[in-house]
Specification:
The complex is a heterodimer of chains A (about 210) and B (about 600).
Chain A lengths: L6 E5 L3 H12 L4 E5 L2 H6 L7 E6 L7 H10 L6 E5 L4 H9 L4 E4 L4 H33 L3 H11 L4 H8 L3 H15 L4 H13 L6
Parallel strand pairs in A: 1-2, 1-3, 3-4, 4-5
Chain B lengths: L31 H4 L7 H17 L4 H13 L3 E8 L11 E3 L3 E3 L8 E3 L4 H8 L3 E4 L17 E9 L2 E10 L8 H58 L3 E6 L4 E4 L1 H7 L3 H6 L4 H4 L5 H14 L1 E10 L5 E10 L6 E8 L1 H63 L5 H31 L5 E3 L1 H11 L1 H6 L3 E6 L6 E3 L1 H20 L7 E9 L2 E8 L27 H11 L3 E5 L6 E7 L6
Parallel strand pairs in B: 14-16
Antiparallel strand pairs in B: 1-2, 1-3, 1-7, 2-4, 5-6, 6-7, 8-9, 8-12, 10-11, 11-12, 13-15, 16-17, 17-19, 18-19
Helix pairs in contact in B: 2-3, 2-5, 3-5, 10-11, 12-14, 14-15
The chains are: A alpha/beta (about 210), B alpha+beta (about 600).
Chain lengths: ~210, ~600
């Protein structure tokens, strides 16, 4: 069985609503996984593909809003689409502030839900891609030798080869060799490319230091 | 009692003629007195004797009996003379005494002072029995107990002694030899002296009484003086302590004297007082004048007036509430003293109390309003959820059908399943709506006769979905013979809705196997009893008292109003909502009284 492209998780305590949503999402060819409660969802294993969560607010046990908070606290980044039959403004604000993709009052327009799901999956896909890129970049950066890393840092800060050579007490030619090898290892096409890469590494602290 | 006065002359009280004693007649020779040659009366000597008695009375009244004995001895020229008086205790004369005692004896028998004879057996008793003078010769022949009293008696003349017309004893003269014999003159002079001594004795008693009264009175006066001294000290302390305002005043309206406390109360100073500006009439606000007039009338009638609460003007024109009590000074007729207690603090405290009560009431009203709003909101949310769930399923399934039909390939089985689901959810939604309409329709009037079982059934039907959703099973034990109660159905539904919702939440959070809720109704002495028991974790005993407080909650999303509102609803129905100790889970129960007018 081939790995699915993406999965939509649905948590609603009403089996009737759950089935209907599954049918609807099925029409656009997405795979769906259904849960009757937050606890059931938390007990399941998350696949390594783009996912999103369609979440009812009113649930037995852990409510939708509490689940959202728990996921944020655990740094599990799943785009959430809330559905509720009695949402009010403060509740909506709270959900959106905590990073919800959308907040749909029940009964919702089918297209609204499907659009929200597409948006959410896109968001998750983007996030996953960025994360993958960053991981690769970090791996490349870590493949640099200490001297190459030192040279890259000084290059990025705007120093000329001559200045770098004076700073580290070596010949300008040696600096040039370090520099071109570093560019090669980092897969940077230009100085501007290298600067962007280093900036990205600096604003996104390593997940596993 | 006789024990304490025992002497060598003490005799058995009921002594009687011993075997072999001679008869009374054989020892009497009274008639001989008239036959014997009588000496002439010596009035001069008699007068001197009377004067001696008289001066005794003035100088040392207590020795009157001894003087009498001495006088008889002197006048009759006998060997021994004395008195016998009836006594009970051997010390004081007493007409009811059971024996005679000898308070005074002159002559040879003088050492026997304090001795005596029995009342009903002896020469003195014989004299009292016959109530006349008797002359005895050798009375020891009959009364053997007199044998040891020496010297022995040759002749004894006994004359009754009267006090206040009653014979209480005898006076007697004794010859221990036949040196001379008693005659009629002796009888006369002894009777005469006896009469005088009797008067003297009565006077003496009287004087003693007076003395006693005087001393009692002096004692009482001393006590009063002591008391007054203490009181004066107390009053002085009171005045100086300046806790109580004290004023001296007269009926004309002047305040002649006042202590610091009073001046502080009305905020005048000593100079104001000295100038005569401070008058109680001008300190009195107009509406209190009537009270003053009544107090003055009381004063004139009784000398005091009952304390009453009133107000005085202070110097700055503001008023000070006081308690006033007072009295006229005895004998002055015009001047009096008054005690004034500042009630400002007390009034302030009362006002504060009233104010905080008002605030509390306002707060409670706010709370009740909030409670109603919250309860309505909660109900609205429930309804929205109940209706929206099936609607959501219907709309979503409908959309699925449309999309499937629009698409190239449509699976009839899939379509049929979706349409069946639409029909089911439509029925479900309509059921919810009709139940809600039913609830609202019944809720119009405030108080109606109702069957609590119906209310329980309505609410459990409404919550049926909650039960299945939470996988909680419901058991009911509803008594069929319940009396109808007066109540507001909507409010009582709210109470049950709240209790059962709580029970469901508690049960579904429970980790143990049983997930049941038991609702019971029963008749009880007060009316109707309803119990809601869950199989949840129960309520910690230390929280049991607090769970009915507003805003108290154990739930993350709760606002803590449900039980508080339920509690007040049941109370307005005259019943009581409480938590009952239960071996497992929580057990809430409430009672509703049967109204007298409801059959």
């Amino acid at each position: 069985m081939s790995e699915p492209e993406s999965i939509v998780f649905v948590i609603d305590d009403d089996p009737s609503v759950r089935c209907a949503i599954e049918r609807l999402i099925g029409t656009v060819g997405l795979q769906v996984q259904l849960f009757g409660s937050a606890q059931e969802f938390l007990a399941s294993k998350l696949p390594d593909v783009p996912i999103c969560l369609v979440l009812d607010i009113r649930l037995p046990g852990i409510s939708g809003l509490v689940l959202q908070r728990q996921l944020v606290e655990a740094n599990v980044q799943i785009p959430i689409i809330f559905i509720t039959s009695h949402g009010d403004v403060p509740m909506t604000v709270r959900a959106m502030k905590a990073g919800a993709v959308d907040f749909l009052p029940k009964p919702f327009h089918d297209q609204d839900l499907l659009d929200a799901i597409h948006l959410a999956l896109e968001k998750d896909r983007g996030r996953r891609q960025q994360e993958a890129e960053l991981t690769a970049l970090r791996a490349r950066f870590e493949s640099l030798s200490p001297r190459e890393g030192e040279v890259v840092a000084m290059v990025v800060s705007g120093m000329l080869n001559k200045q770098i050579a004076a700073q580290i007490g070596t010949a300008e030619n040696t600096v040039k060799i370090h520099r071109s090898r570093a560019m090669e290892k980092m897969q940077a096409n230009s100085l501007a490319d290298l600067v962007k890469m280093i900036q990205r590494l600096q604003v996104s602290p390593s997940k596993s230091p | 009692m006789t024990q304490s006065v025992k002497s060598k002359y003490d005799l058995p009280v009921e002594a009687s003629t011993p075997e072999g004693a001679v008869s009374l007649d054989s020892i009497l020779c009274t008639e001989e007195l008239q036959c014997r040659p009588s000496r002439p009366p010596d009035y001069e000597k008699e007068n001197r004797a009377l004067v001696a008695l008289m001066s005794t009375l003035t100088d040392s009244p207590s020795s009157i009996f001894q003087t009498l004995a001495d006088t008889i001895l002197d006048i009759t020229q006998c060997d021994s003379a004395g008195l016998s008086l009836l006594t009970r205790d051997g010390k004081k004369p007493d007409v009811c005494g059971k024996r005679f005692y000898w308070p005074a004896i002159a002559g040879m028998w003088n050492p026997h002072v304090g001795g005596g004879t029995p009342r009903h057996f002896g020469p003195c008793g014989d004299v009292l029995d016959q109530n006349r003078t008797l002359l005895f010769r050798h009375f020891e022949r009959r009364y053997a107990y007199l044998l040891p009293v020496i010297p022995a008696v040759e002749e004894c003349l006994l004359v009754p002694f009267y006090v206040a017309g009653e014979a209480v004893g005898t006076i007697w003269a004794i010859m221990h030899s036949d040196r001379r014999k008693f005659d009629a003159e002796d009888d006369r002079v002894m009777a005469s002296l006896g009469k005088f001594a009797s008067s003297a004795y009565q006077a003496l008693i009287h004087i003693e009484n007076l003395k006693f009264q005087v001393s009692e009175r002096e004692k009482a006066e001393a006590e009063v003086r002591e008391l007054a001294k203490g009181l004066e000290a107390k009053i002085r302390r009171l005045v100086e302590a300046n806790v109580v305002g004290i004023v001296m005043w007269n009926l004309e309206g002047a305040i002649t004297e006042a202590n610091e406390a009073f001046l502080r109360m009305v905020q005048y100073n000593r100079e104001d007082l000295a100038s005569g500006r401070v008058r109680w009439t001008s300190l009195t606000p107009a509406e209190w004048r009537g009270h003053d007039e009544r107090a003055v009338a009381d004063l004139k009638a009784t000398g005091i007036f009952q304390p009453f609460e009133r107000e005085y003007f202070r110097k700055d024109g503001r008023r000070v509430p006081v308690l006033l009590g007072g009295a006229l000074i005895e004998g002055s007729g015009n001047e009096g003293v008054a005690f004034v207690l500042d009630l400002s603090e007390q009034k302030r405290a009362q006002d504060n109390l009233r104010e905080s009560e008002t605030r509390l009431q306002a707060f409670q009203e706010d709370l009740a309003r909030v409670s109603r709003v919250v309860a309505m909101g909660e109900l609205a949310a429930t309804i929205a959820h109940e209706v929206n769930q099936p609607l959501t399923a219907i709309v979503t399934n409908g959309n699925f059908c449309l999309r499937t039909l629009d698409g190239a390939t449509s699976n009839p089985d899939e379509l049929r399943a979706a349409i069946t689901a639409i029909v089911n959810d439509g029925t479900r939604a309509s059921g919810v709506i009709s139940r809600i309409r039913g609830l609202l329709k019944k809720g119009a009037p405030d108080r109606t006769e109702l069957d609590i079982n119906e209310i329980i059934q309505d609410v459990t039907t409404l919550l049926r979905h909650e039960f299945t959703r939470s996988r909680v099973s419901l058991r009911t034990e509803l008594a069929s013979d319940l009396p109808r109660v007066l109540g507001d159905p909507v409010q009582l539904q709210q109470v049950l809705l709240n209790l059962i919702t709580n029970a469901i939440e508690a049960t579904s959070s429970s980790t143990n196997g049983r997930r049941t809720i038991l609702i019971r109704s029963a008749k009880n002495p007060d009316g109707v009893l309803v119990q809601v028991q869950d199989s949840g974790p129960g309520i910690a005993p230390e929280l049991a008292d607090r769970i009915f407080e507003p805003f108290f909650t154990t739930k993350a999303e709760g606002i803590g109003m449900g039980l508080s509102i339920s509690h007040s609803i049941v109370e307005t129905h005259g019943g009581h909502l409480g938590i009952v100790p239960s071996p497992a889970g929580a057990l809430f129960e409430f009672t509703l009284p049967i109204d007298a007018g409801v059959s």
